[in-house]
From TrEMBL:
<dbReference type="InterPro" id="IPR001680">
    <property type="entry name" value="WD40_rpt"/>
</dbReference>
<feature type="repeat" description="WD">
    <location>
        <begin position="141"/>
        <end position="175"/>
    </location>
</feature>
<dbReference type="InterPro" id="IPR036322">
    <property type="entry name" value="WD40_repeat_dom_sf"/>
</dbReference>
<dbReference type="InterPro" id="IPR015943">
    <property type="entry name" value="WD40/YVTN_repeat-like_dom_sf"/>
</dbReference>
<keyword id="KW-0677">Repeat</keyword>
<dbReference type="Pfam" id="PF00400">
    <property type="entry name" value="WD40"/>
</dbReference>
<feature type="repeat" description="WD">
    <location>
        <begin position="61"/>
        <end position="93"/>
    </location>
</feature>
<keyword id="KW-0853">WD repeat</keyword>
<feature type="repeat" description="WD">
    <location>
        <begin position="98"/>
        <end position="139"/>
    </location>
</feature>
<protein>
    <recommendedName>
        <fullName>Anaphase-promoting complex subunit 4 WD40 domain-containing protein</fullName>
    </recommendedName>
</protein>
<dbReference type="InterPro" id="IPR020472">
    <property type="entry name" value="WD40_PAC1"/>
</dbReference>
């Protein structure tokens, strides 16, 4: 469903079509992307109709590129796939694919300028990728002590935050690729979601 953040009113009827648990929903301009274990779907955000036929891919996480024309999917097989989601396409064709993780990708974050992305996986690593070359940036996986469920990139592109089942939030300098672990005041449970806003962590 789509809700107004100012009035709390429902703006669109339920989007019906998935036949499995919906793992992720991402909003971009007038489009909504959603995924389950069977496929991912791109909807018109105001009327709830599919813009293109369902894309047959087993995705666990999603992220839009800044221009809203391409959709990135983190998949159960550990791959990251980039799809054409513009209104000019009728199929959601595959543009590029990144491989490096060895297990399901729980979270994807894209930098504000669209030049790189971060992925967090069940293989206990965070990885950075160049969106132009599809090559991995920096070390071969930034390590956690458990699976990584959430990643976020600061608006200025200088820092990356990650959290997961090891009950820690880690802040990585993307200029020097080192980690600061925030584990003193975090709940004694897995970290499920992170959002970065310049110097503030939510």
């Amino acid at each position: 469903m789509v809700w107004s953040t100012t009035t709390g009113e429902r703006l669109a009827a339920p989007f019906i079509g998935h036949t499995y648990t919906v793992y992720c929903v991402q909003l971009s301009l007038d489009k909504i992307a959603s995924c389950d274990y069977r496929d991912l779907r791109i909807w018109h955000s105001h009327i709830g109709e599919l813009l293109i036929p369902p894309i047959q891919v087993k995705a666990r996480s999603l992220a839009w590129t800044p221009n809203g024309q391409q959709l990135i999917a983190g998949c159960f097989d550990g791959s990251i796939k980039l799809f054409d989601a513009s209104t000019a396409t009728t199929t959601g064709s595959l543009i590029a694919e990144w491989k490096g993780h060895t297990n399901v990708i729980y979270s994807i974050a894209v930098s504000r300028n669209g030049k790189f992305l971060a992925s967090g996986s069940d293989d206990n690593t965070v990885r950075l990728w160049d969106t132009a070359t599809q090559q991995q940036i920096g070390p071969n996986g930034l390590q956690h002590d458990g699976y990584v469920t959430s990643v976020a990139i600061s608006p200025d592109g200088c820092h990356l935050a990650s959290g997961g089942s090891d009950e820690k939030v880690r802040i990585w300098s993307l200029q020097h690729i080192f980690a600061k672990s925030l584990d003193g005041n975090t709940p004694k449970n897995a970290v499920r979601s992170i959002c970065l806003q310049y110097t503030k962590l939510y």
